[in-house]
Write a structure and sequence with these properties.
There is one protein chain. With about 675 residues, the protein is of the alpha+beta class. It folds into 4 domains: about 290 residues, Immunoglobulin-like; about 130 residues, Neutral Protease Domain 2 (Neutral Protease, domain 2); about 70 residues, Immunoglobulin-like; about 130 residues, Chitobiase, domain 2. The strands form 8 sheets. It has an 8-stranded mixed sheet, with no helix packed on it. The protein has a 7-stranded mixed sheet with strand order 32-31-33-35-34-36-37. Helix 8 crosses helix 9. The chain is globular. The structure holds zinc ion.
Length: about 675
């Protein structure tokens, strides 16, 4: 089940795959059980690491409070130099993969003390690994630039199936500093070397250790209940000037979430840099690539998400077998909240982006939210993060912000350090709001797909007080229970009405003063729903990632043609299916790549609109989407010459969320998303 506890977070959209993983997070124990009250295995570990020689020497005392059989496992690259249970030698067996294994049988009735000493060489740190490679390899690595010992690498003799408490003492040569998740009990940093002791007294699933030539910056923060919280950065020297900004940002998040939810449940929070471009999150710390930390927006977005996971995920544990709610709630209270703080438009843009991505899912990629456990691919993120965040957004709309926030605080008060499932959340929201939310949770958690509400008829008649509107809303069977916002536009302005749509077709009557000119369905995108065709003009990614997309390569000259094919391959992450230039536009999405004069001529020949004003004449290359009259989405890439086309190969795949973009060489110099065409019905 360990793998299910892996928590993946997309740090930012355009780079796609940076994620965060927590090892010391929730267990699949029965929901509602306070893990504090179950019995744990205690480790007392002392580890000395020399990154120059990559030698690790460790010593661990393990205490079992016996409830069942356990297995201890230590990586194959280590040599066991001492292994005793009480005073009796306790030799390991060799597993098939040559790792050392100790069976600790249930038959040992009273608490026992197992002591193991081990030593061995860690793998060399490979700084060229990308994020996925780092994630996919549970390998303990060390080098002058950094040491990372993920729990799953078996860098210490660890139980493979139980919850633990631990103490870890780390010893490193001078100039190196290191940490594990937990409370810093003691620290000595001298010319003779570095030593730090950590303690983790909440239930954990494992221990990840990080070290490096860090410069440490600390701030003492006083929590909402007056408790001291140690905020730290462990940064490589090249980014140490960023430390104070990160610490300031962390304080901002602590202020926000302590007042919104409740007191921070731990005594420290550290931001730790990694020499590889990765991103991991654990209780009390986040481990992010140097390159990630250098991005200017990380402290305003992902950092807050990471801080918030110390409430949702690392303190209130998701019940992975019954669905992971923590990514949705964290996305709603972090990423989405920052958009709301920015502006209503930015928030609406984010909601629209979620619906747009959902609309771009292929059949079969969608699954019920209740089945989401962790992010394994893009599609699971769209459900597990976005649909889930939208659930909380709609819930807040339904029960009101005050009630919503009181329920959030209630969940925190009741479920801290407990395994918590969706039904726990539901009952908290029901109790505080005094409402039956069964059908609300049921439809958003158990169903795949999304509702498709539409306005199908509007009739207006004069009445004594003004005008009466009869608005007919429809949706597919089986119907969702929806509170549908409908804007009525009159001479005097716009007024919003909420209609409780419960059937496949329902007519609502509303009296208004001034005569209505039109009605608009959900103009603010407050419902999780299928966007109507034409409601959301395409973004580049819709064409780029669609497996049915065909490609038209306009240049016939060898070199430029080759560049164009390479670009198509990069954008689609597969060999492009190339159509002949003279073929008429097919019904599937099409990617068109060419030089300016070729693209212009191609558009004219097909009676399509020319390059849009937003990007026309800007920079050396442009890309934009267009809906062909027959309904197919087109993405067009136009460059001034072969070199400009080649310059797009690296950056362009990262801009899939845009509808149009201009580049000067490799530099994006302007981009945007075509505005939404809302579902508007004019009233004659
Ligand atoms: Zn997350």
């Amino acid at each position: 089940m360990k793998k299910q506890a892996v928590r993946l977070i997309q740090l930012f959209y355009c780079f796609g795959l940076l994620c965060v993983v927590g090892t010391a997070v929730a267990s699949p124990a029965a929901p509602g059980i306070a893990r504090e009250h179950t019995r744990f295995i205690d480790y007392d570990i002392q580890v000395r690491i020399d990154p120059a020689t990559r030698m690790l020497e460790g010593k661990s005392i393990i205490k079992f409070n016996k409830t069942r059989d356990h297995v201890l496992k230590l990586g194959a690259q280590f040599e066991v130099t001492h292994a005793y249970v009480d005073d009796v030698p306790f030799e390991p067996e060799a597993a098939a993969d040559q790792s050392h294994v100790w069976q600790v049988p249930y038959a040992i009735l009273r608490p026992h003390r197992i002591e193991i000493h081990w030593r061995g060489l860690l793998h060399a740190l490979d700084e060229t690994l990308d994020h996925e490679q780092t994630l996919g390899r549970p390998v303990a690595v060390s080098g002058a630039a950094g040491t990372f010992l993920p729990d799953a690498s078996n860098w210490y003799p660890r139980v493979t199936d139980g919850l633990i408490h631990y103490k870890v003492q780390i010893e490193l040569p001078a100039g190196q500093r290191g940490l594990v998740a937990g409370r810093l009990v003691d620290e000595q940093d001298t010319d003779a070397g570095y030593q730090a002791r950590f303690e983790f007294t909440h239930p954990a699933e494992g221990i990840d250790l990080m070290a490096g030539p860090y410069e440490i910056a600390s701030e003492n923060y006083t929590g909402i209940q007056g408790e001291p919280i140690l905020l730290r950065t462990y940064f490589h020297s090249q980014i140490s000037p960023l430390a104070s900004d990160y610490l300031e940002a962390a304080k901002r998040y602590f202020k926000l979430y302590e007042s919104w939810i409740g007191a921070y449940p731990f005594s420290e929070f550290s931001i730790v840099s990694s020499p590889t471009p990765t991103g991991f999150g654990m209780p009390t710390l986040t481990y992010l690539g140097i390159n990630v930390l250098q991005l200017p927006f990380i402290k305003d977005t992902s950092l807050g998400h990471e801080v918030l996971h110390n409430w949702w995920g690392n303190a209130v544990y998701p019940d992975y077998q019954r669905g992971n709610w923590s990514e949705g709630l964290t996305t709603f209270m972090a990423d989405y909240t920052y958009k709301e703080q920015e502006s209503e438009d930015a928030a609406r843009e984010m909601r629209l982006g979620w619906l747009r991505n959902f609309a771009a899912l292929e059949p079969g990629q969608d699954e019920p939210l209740a089945r989401f456990t962790s992010r394994t691919h893009g599609a699971s993120k769209i459900v597990g993060y976005h649909k889930s965040a939208m659930l909380f957004f709609m819930l807040r709309d339904l029960i009101g912000e005050d009630v919503f926030n009181r329920a959030i605080q209630g969940i925190w008060g009741m479920q801290r350090f407990k395994v918590t499932a969706w039904p726990h959340l539901q009952s908290a929201f029901e109790i505080i709001s005094v409402r039956d939310l069964h059908s609300f949770f049921d439809q958003w958690l158990q169903r795949t797909g999304a509702p498709n509400p539409a306005i199908t008829a509007v009739r207006q008649e004069p009445v004594e007080s003004g005008h009466r509107l009869h608005i007919t809303l429809t949706q597919s069977e089986p119907p969702y229970q929806l509170r549908v916002p409908v804007a009525v536009q009159t001479d005097a302005g716009e007024e919003m009405h909420l209609f409780d749509l419960q059937h496949a077709e329902q007519t609502f009557v509303v009296d208004i003063g001034d005569k209505a000119q039109s009605v608009i369905l959900d103009p603010d995108i407050r419902l999780f729903r299928h966007l109507a065709s034409g409601e959301a003009p395409p973004i580049l990614r819709e064409v780029m990632v669609n497996p049915t997309t065909a490609t038209i390569i306009l240049p016939d000259n060898g070199e430029t043609r080759q560049t164009a094919v390479m670009l198509a391959e990069k954008l689609q992450r597969r060999a492009p299916q190339i159509l002949s230039v003279n073929q008429s536009i097919p019904a599937v999405p099409v990617l068109i790549i060419g030089l300016h004069h070729e693209v212009d001529a191609w558009l004219v020949a097909r009676d399509l609109p020319p390059k849009p004003d937003e990007i026309n004449g800007k920079g050396t290359a442009q890309a934009w989407t267009l809906t062909a009259p027959q309904g197919a989405s087109l993405a067009i890439v136009s460059a001034q010459d072969n070199a400009s086309l080649e310059s797009l190969i690296r950056p362009l795949p990262h801009y899939g969320r845009q509808s149009y973009i201009a580049f000067d060489g490799r530099q994006a110099i302007g981009s945007g998303i075509w505005p939404v065409q809302v579902q508007r019905v004019e009233i004659p």
